UniProtKB/TrEMBL annotation:
InterPro entries: ATPase_P-typ_cyto_dom_N (IPR023299), ATPase_P-typ_P_site (IPR018303), ATPase_P-typ_TM_dom_sf (IPR023298), ATPase_P-typ_transduc_dom_A_sf (IPR008250), ATPase_P-type_domA (IPR059000), Cation_Transport_ATPase_IB (IPR051014), HAD-like_sf (IPR036412), HAD_sf (IPR023214). It comes from Denitratimonas tolerans. Residues 618-749 form the Hemerythrin-like domain. This is P-type Zn(2+) transporter. The chain crosses the membrane at residues 6-22, 29-50, 62-89, 223-242, 248-269, 558-577. NCBIfam families: ATPase-IB_hvy (TIGR01525), ATPase_P-type (TIGR01494). It is an enzyme of class 7 (translocase). One of its GO terms (molecular function) is cadmium ion transmembrane transporter activity. Its EC number is 7.2.2.12. Its main location: membrane. The keyword rRNA processing does not apply. Pfam families: E1-E2_ATPase (PF00122), Hemerythrin (PF01814), Hydrolase (PF00702). PROSITE patterns: ATPASE_E1_E2 (PS00154).
Length: 755
């Protein structure tokens, strides 16, 4: 602001003096205004030349020096004002573009409110240690990571994740520092010191991003490599042809490359800002430029393509025990275990509203399983080998085990009173938004998608097949991942996405490393060039889209400005433009290209609709599907057991299943048709955007109608084997279409929650 003001003052004072016929004083005012800009520019050019980096500043310096040398003091003053004004616009753009990132730094808390007995005290943030009980008042930023000790907390997480709606958390949930308390005060048990908390790590990343030189200037310097010599050649030719140095000066003045000097960094900084506003930190313009050029993408599986935690897929039963009974006993016993799968089993039981009992006389074999007594019933839970040593296992376990291997799931066997009663199939489920994100990435120009994982080959193949990736590389050590990324980088720019410590070497070696930083390891976030602060993979697709739009808009500004400059250089060489008129024309060109570069700030998210569902609606719809999950599991279990059941048992189970399908499933689908689909269709737009989904409903209703008719026609004592086979075929068909239909609905709802 100071340089621009000084150069503007020098120009205006000179004009006033010239009008007062004080010509020499006016000339000195213009010279001083020119030198205020010219001297710092000279220092910049000399430093660049010492680094063998002439760049685009050379022409600007030559135009000011040449104008002063030839007595064109007013022209020199206008050029200086033009450069000063451009720098002012760039500064404004950086402040405007960087305000989302700067807001993170400005919001950093300095103190915390800590309990000391029954009293509260305000302490410096550095004094907080893990285990301290803190109070977070309404409107305050959470000072450290911690566990919610109150019944409920409502947090505004927009500054970190870009999530526009407040998020409600329940007692015992882990909360991230940097979010804002949007409701009543609550208590927080500190889980980390301030320096080790999420917010401190993000602040460090922001500071790195802000201090990095926008490498897109390399783009400007590449064009300067031919533009500067061309401008000097045209100026020299005009001088030699006419003997008039003024013509040469006019050529240099209109060639002064402000579009290169300013428009490119303005576009890049705006792109980085746009990413920050969407919950993505980009550590400099080089990462953005490389992201736009990348054609191959490598993903870690666990925690990136998948959620990174086990989830109960289905409950298979072998005897007379119901699926809910098997799950409830297993979860009750697992409360005594610290195994990684125990939490998933307990969570699944609670989600289904099952009552858990205490376990007694428990004995655990590390890594294999445990046995104990739950409500007088002896229960064993664990691997096939472990449970086989504790109880009798029927041959049908083999088919379930084969299914688990084929689907890439983990199998936990459950025995009740000495007999295998069922099996729990658990898997690390693919993120809901992952298929959509991969499609958007391909649309954004990614040609090859590779899954790179340390997981087993069968598990990786199952996930890869479901997602449609181009290649699956399984059982990879960190060294293996590093070798693959280095080899890929030698062929073409590549992107690596990961979230764990073992991904850090590969992230650092890739042309662009992307870390899932919302809950990923600090090492991976530090090694990466891009950090997704919100745990959604579709934000990466949006970042790639912003990178492409940034590059496109920057190049538009460059070519527009250079094109007009080349035309103006021709007019100046033939004497149709004086240096003064050329300087004024160049000012107009500069303003136009910089305003064009600022359009990057208006790049919109990639989405099907401008409208979206609230997070509460999405959570409600997801919860409805979760409530129907046990019914789908029961349907699959009945289909699998049907051939081995006696006539009366088969009739009883089929009758109960048909009743549940009628009262639970069909009621849900009819409600979707009447209430949910019309509302979603209005958001998507078009005549009938959910026609395919409604067609699925018709097929579900048709299959149920046929199933009900077959079940009603069965002999309850000795059902016809062919009829039972038809029933089994319909059950499998209904199970397949329901799971696909639910997955499609989840993807649509998730896409509409993409705010």
């Amino acid at each position: 602001m100071g340089v621009f003001s000084a150069s503007a003052m020098g120009l205006l004072v000179g004009v006033v003096l010239w009008l007062l016929d004080l010509r020499e004083a006016a000339a000195w005012s213009w010279r001083i205004g020119s030198l205020i800009v010219g001297v710092p520019l000279l220092v910049t050019v000399v430093r660049g030349l010492l680094r063998r980096d002439g760049g685009v500043d050379v022409l600007a310096l030559i135009s000011i020096v040449g104008a002063l040398a030839l007595g064109q003091d007013l022209t020199a003053a206008i050029i200086a004002l033009m450069l000063g004004g451009g720098q002012l616009l760039e500064s404004f753009a950086e402040r405007r573009a960087g305000r989302e990132m700067s807001a993170l730094l400005g919001r950093a808390p300095r103190v915390a409110t800590r309990y000391r007995g029954s009293e509260l005290e305000e302490v410096a943030l550095g004094e907080v240690v893990p285990g301290d009980r803190l109070m977070v008042r309404h409107g305050e930023v959470l000072p450290v990571d911690g566990v919610l000790a109150s019944a409920r907390a409502v947090l505004d997480e927009s500054a970190l994740s870009g999530e526009s709606m407040p998020v409600t958390h329940a007692r015992g949930e882990h909360l991230r520092s940097g979010t804002v308390n949007a409701a009543d005060a609550f208590d927080l048990i500190a889980a980390a010191a301030a320096a080790d908390s999420t917010y401190a790590g993000i602040v460090r990343l922001v500071e790195q991003a802000q201090s990095s030189r926008a490498p897109a200037m390399r783009l400007a310097d590449r064009y300067a490599g031919w533009f500067v010599p061309l401008a000097l050649a045209v100026a020299g030719g005009a001088w030699l042809a006419t003997g008039d140095p003024i013509r040469a000066l006019a050529v240099i003045v209109v060639a002064t490359p402000c579009p290169l000097l300013l428009a490119v960094p303005v576009a890049v900084v705006s792109g980085i800002s746009r990413c920050a506003s969407r919950g993505v930190l980009v550590k400099g313009g080089g990462a953005l430029e490389s992201l736009a050029a990348a054609r191959s993408l490598f993903f870690d599986k666990t925690g990136t393509l998948t959620a990174g935690r086990a989830h109960l897929v289905s409950v298979e039963t072998f005897g007379t025990h119901a699926a809910d009974r098997v799950l409830a006993l297993a979860a009750s016993l697992e409360q005594a275990s610290a195994h990684v799968l125990a939490g998933a089993i307990i969570s699944a039981a609670r989600e289904r509203g099952l009552a858990l009992e205490g376990a007694e006389d428990t004995r655990e074999t590390a890594g294999s399983g445990l046995v104990g007594t739950v409500g007088g019933t002896r229960v064993a839970v664990g691997s096939v080998a472990f449970v086989t040593s504790q109880a009798a296992v029927p041959p049908s376990v083999t088919s379930v085990l084969d299914r688990a291997v084929g689907e890439g799931t983990s199998l936990v066997l459950v025995a009740i009173d000495g007999e295998a009663a069922g099996a729990l199939l658990l898997a690390d489920l693919v993120r809901t938004e992952t298929p959509r994100a991969l499609r958007l990435l391909r649309r954004a120009g990614i040609e090859r998608i590779v899954m790179l994982t340390g997981d087993r080959q069968d598990v990786a193949d199952a996930v890869g097949a479901g997602l449609g990736v181009d290649e699956v590389l399984a059982e990879q050590t960190p060294e293996d991942k590093l070798t693959v990324i280095r080899a890929a980088s030698e062929i073409a720019p590549c992107v690596m996405v990961g979230d764990g410590i073992n991904d850090a070497p590969a992230l650092a070696a890739a042309d662009v490393g992307v870390a899932m930083g919302a809950r990923g390891a600090t090492a991976s976030a530090e090694a990466a060039d891009v950090v997704l602060l919100v745990d959604r993979l579709d934000r990466l697709a949006e970042t790639v889209n912003i990178a492409h739009r940034t590059r496109t808009i920057a190049l538009q500004s460059v070519f527009f400005g250079m094109g007009f400059s080349l035309v103006a250089m021709g007019f100046a060489a033939f004497g149709f433009l004086t240096p003064l008129h050329g300087a004024l024309l160049q000012e107009v060109i500069d303003v136009a290209v910089i305003l064009n570069a600022l359009r990057v700030l208006r790049v919109q998210p990639v989405r099907a609709s401008r409208h979206h569902l609230s997070q509460e609606d999405v959570d409600r719809l997801h919860a409805e599907h979760e409530q129907l999950a046990p019914l789908l599991d029961h349907l699959a279990a009945v289909a699998a057991r049907l051939p081995s059941l006696s006539g009366p048992e088969a009739s009883r189970l089929l009758g109960e299943l048909e009743h549940r399908l009628q009262t639970e499933l069909l009621a849900h689908e009819h409600a979707d048709d009447r209430e949910v689909y019309p509302a979603v269709a209005a958001l998507l737009g078009g005549d009938d955007p959910l026609a395919a989904m409604s067609r699925s409903h018709r097929e579900i209703f048709r299959l149920h109608h046929r199933l009900a008719a077959l079940i009603d026609g069965l002999d309850p004592q000795t059902p016809d084997p062919q009829a039972l086979q038809d029933v089994q075929r319909l059950l499998y068909g209904l199970d397949a279409i329901l799971r696909l239909h639910f997955a499609q609905e989840e993807e649509i709802y998730s896409g509409l929650s993409y705010a």
